[in-house]
Fold this protein.
Amino acid sequence: METQAFQKVYTKITNLTKATITLKATDIGYDEMALVAGRMGQVVKIMGEEVVLQIFAGTEGIPTNAEVVFLGRPPQLKVGDQLAGRFFNAFGEPIDGGPEVDGRVIDTGGPSVNPVRRKQPSQLIATGIAGIDLNNSLVTGQKIPFFADPDQPYNQVMANVALRAEADKIILGGMGLSNDDYLYFKNIFDNAGALDRIVSFVNTTDDPPVERLLIPDMALSAAEYFAEEKQQKVLVLLTDMTLFADALSIVSNRMDQIPSKDSMPGSLYSDLARIYEKAVQFPHGGSITIIAVTTLNGGDITHAIPDNTGYITEGQLFLRMDSDVGKVIVDPFRSLSRLKQLVIGKQTREDHPQVMNAAIRLYADAANAKTKQDNGFDLTDYDERTLKFAKEYSEQILAVDINIDTEKMLDTTWDLFQQNFEREEVVVRQEFVDKYWKQ
Amino acid sequence: MERKSKTTGVVAGIIANLVIVEVDGPVAQNEICFIQHPENKLMAEVIKILGKNVYVQVFESTRGLKVGTKVDFEGHLLEVTLGPGILSRNYDGLQNDLDKMDGVFLKRGDYTDPLNREKKWDWRPIAKAGDQVVAGSWLGEVPENGMPHRIMVPFKFKGSYNVKSVVEAGQYTVDNIIAVVTDSEGNDIDLTMVQKWPVKVAVKAYKEKPRPFKLLETGIRTMDTLNPITEGGTGFIPGPFGTGKTVLQHAISKYAEADIVIIAACGERANEVVEIFTEFPELEDPRTGRKLIERTTIIANTSNMPVAAREASVYTAMTLGEYYRSMGLKVLLMADSTSRWAQALREMSNRLEELPGPDAFPMDLTAIITSFYARAGFVYLNNGESGSITFIGTVSPAGGNLKEPVTESTRKAARCFYGLNQSRADSKRYPAIDPIDSYSKYLEYPEVVDYLTENISEDWLDQVMKTKTLLLRGREAMEQINILGDDGVPLEFHERFWNSELIDAVILQQDSFDKIDANCPLERQKYMLEKVLGITDMRFSFETFEDVSGFFKRVINQLKQINYSEWKSEKFATYETELEEIFKERLN
C-alpha cells in the first residue's frame, strides 16, 4: 500500500523475537515506520547499522528473508473534516467499509502545548448525570478517568456523557474494546443521530494488543486538529487505559527492560502523562477534554496503573453499585473533580458549593449510622433520618440513569433536605436557607 | 575544561532519548553537546563514557534522528544564565524563556534567551576602585521588582581580584561592562551583569553555613506552631494523590515570609502551572504590597515535557536560588514533585542498563537526593550579610505507601516531614498534614529553641509539646471509644477526645480558600494556641457524652468564626465574648 518504486527493500532479518526483528539497514530515522512482510513496524532502537523494529501485530510467521521496507516517516494521520462520522483502526485506516479520507497528513504524537499559551479551564460541561454535575462537575480542558471494576457499566455511562455534553466533536479511542462494545458505541452514536460529530479509532480484542499503543496518539492528533485549527470543543473518550498500559508492559518486557512496580515499565508515569496532558483549554475557545476509563483489579487503586493515573489526571470518578436502591451510583466520597472549584457557584447557581457539601456531609453521617446499625448499636432519630435521606439521595441524585439540569439537581436536593431535616441540621449559609428553604 | 579545539562526534546508536556518540577527542562527564539534526539542533548531556562511545541523554524527542548525524561538544556543563530579570519569568527546565517561544506548541530545539538584553537597569555601584574582591563579592546593585539585585563577581572566579574601575550610577543593559577587575597576574577582566554557572555544582561563594536557627513563618498553623521549618531549612511533603499537596505548596509559596520564591513544577500537571500564571499576577504580597508574581520565578517542566529536562529543572531552580541567596536574600524553593525527578533518573538508569536498586530506581538515588537537599541552607556571606534557601519538596509515593525508595531516601535528607494523611483528606480536614506522624527536627536544635523562646515566648516549646500530647491522647481515647462504644468508656475519655478535636479544628485545620484564614501570622497563631490550650485546662461539668460533643461543637464553631474574622476586629471581639458566655453554662 505505501511501498513505492525505487524504495530500498531489505530481505535479511538477523534476529527475531516474539515482538521485534533486527536487521542491518542504513539511513534510518528513529521512530520511523516500516512494513515487514506487510505488517506495520516501528524503529525502537538503532545501534550502528543494526536496527530493531517493533512489529505491532507480532512476528508469528515472519521468515528471516521477509521483505522490509522503511517508510521514512513516523506514525501519521490524515486529518480533515472528512474524519467526522468515520471509524478507523490503530493505523488510521478506515474499518467501516468507507473510502479513504482525503486530508492533510500530520505526524501523530507531536509536541505539547507551551504552558504559557494555555488558558485556565473555566467552562462547565453539563452531562445531566447529577452524581457528576452536582458533586464532581467537569470542565473543558480537564482530564478525568472513571475508576471502575470491569463489571461496571462504564462504557454506557461514558457514551451517555459524550452524547449529552455539548461538544462539537467526540473522539473515541477504543483500546481492547470487545467487539460487542464496539458495536454498542457504533449503534448508540448512530441512533442518537450524532455520527457526524464523532470520530472513532478502535482496536478491538480481535486485533493484536500492541497496536493499542497507537490509539491514543491517533485520537489526540485528530482532537488537536479540531480543537486548535477549527477552534472546536472536543471531547476525547479513551477506554480502556488499563489495557493500553498492559500493552506497554508487554513491549518493555520483550525489550528486556527492568520492570518497576507491578511489572509496569519505569516510564509508565511519563507514558500516561504524555497522553493525558494533551487535554487543554486554548485561549481562542477550542479545547480538548479527556474522559478515560481505567479498569481496576478488585477495586485496588494502589496498583501502578490507577496510582500513576491519579497523580496525572484532575480527579477521578468512581462507580459503585448501591444495594439499598439497586442502582449504579457515582460514589460521592471517592470521586473528585479537581477543577470543579473553577465553575461551581460561578457558572452554576450560587448555592451550588454549599448544597453539594451539605448533602455529602449528611450522606457521610448516614454511612456512619449504617456502620452503627451493622455493629448492633442503637440508632438515634437523627441516624434514622440520615438513612432515609441517603436512600432518596442515591435514587434521585447519585444514580447514573438520572438526566436533569443542575438547577433541578439543586432544587431536588433542597427538597430532600426539607423532607428529612431541620434547618440547623443542614448547616448551609443563612442567606441560601432563607432563599431556597420553602416556607 | 577549557579546550583549544572543539570535540566533535557522530551518532552511532539511538534508544529513545539515550543516544550513543562516537567521538574524536576529549569529552567530560555531564558536558553539553548539540546534535546537528537537519531540522533543529538538539541539546544533550553526557552521562556515561565508554572508550570512544559517549552516552548522552537528549533533552528533546529523538524522532527522526539518524545514525551518522554530527555532534558538537560545547566544552562546558549544563549552565544557567544569571543576571537581573529572572524574577517573574516562566522558564522551562533548561531555563528557556517560555514566553519568548513562538506558536502554541513547543518546538523541538527552540532555545530562547532567559534574560532581556535590551532593558536598561538602574545601576548603583557598591564596590570602588582598589577594593579586593572574590567570587560572590557585590560590585553594585540594580532594583529588580523592588528587590535589590546585587551584581556579583562571577562565582567561577578563583582567588582574589583587585577592582580597577566600576562604572558610575546610571542606566545600563545587562551586557554593558559595569566593572573591570585585575587578577593576580595583572590581567584586566571586563565584567557585565551576566554570569553563567553549571547547575549541578553547588555555589560555594559564602563564608560559612551555620545550622539554621531562625523560624521561617509560612502562615500555616500546623507547620509554624507544631512543626516549624527554619530559614535555610529543608522539608518534604509526601502524600497520596488527592490529599492536597499542590494546594498546600501554593499556600506556602503565597504567604511564606520570603524575599524570593522559586517554584519548580517538576513533571506535574500543566493546568496547575497555569493556575499560578493566572492567580499570582492578581494576588498581593502581604509584606510588600506588590503582586506575588513579582517575587516569583517558575521553572515549568510539566509531565508531558521531555523527561531528561525534568532532572535538569530541579537543578536549574536550585542554582537560581543560590544566586539570589548570594545577594543576601531569603529564598524559598519549592519542588513539586521530587518523585517525578526520581522517576526521570530511573528511566535513564534503565536505558543505561545499570543494575537496579529497589523498585528499579538507581542505586545512588539516596546519594543524589541527599546532596541536592544539602544545597539548601542558611549562609553568612563574605561581607557579613546573610542569605538562605529554604527547600520544600513534595513526594508522590506510589500507592500512597511511605515505605518506597523516594520517600525513604528523602526522609534521610530533609529535616521536616509533613506527611499528608489520606483519611484526613477524605474527611476534608485540610491541610491534611498528620499532626502525630509529622515532625520537625529543628525543634531539637538548641539554637532554634533559643530563638523560639526569645521571639515568641518563654514557655512556647512547652505549649507546643503539650499540644502534641493532647492530640496523641485524643487519638488514644478515640480508639477506646470505637472499641468499647460511647457508653463503655468514662466521660473523661470523651472530654479527651473532644479536646483533641478542638485543637484539630481550630489550630490544625485552615481554609486556604478563605481570604483571612489562609494566612495566619505568628502573633495570631500564638494567641489562638494559648486560647485553645486555656480551654483544654478548664474544667467543665457534663452529664452525658452527648453533652460533651454538643458543647465542644459549639465551642469549635465559635472559634472557627474567630479564625475567619479579621485579626482584632470588632467581629473578632464579639465572637470572643460570645465564647465566654458558652463557657459559663458548663464551667464548674
Q: What stands out?
A: Chain B touches chain A through 62 residues (CB under 8 Å). Chain B is about 30% helix and 20% strand. Chain B has a mean pLDDT of 93.
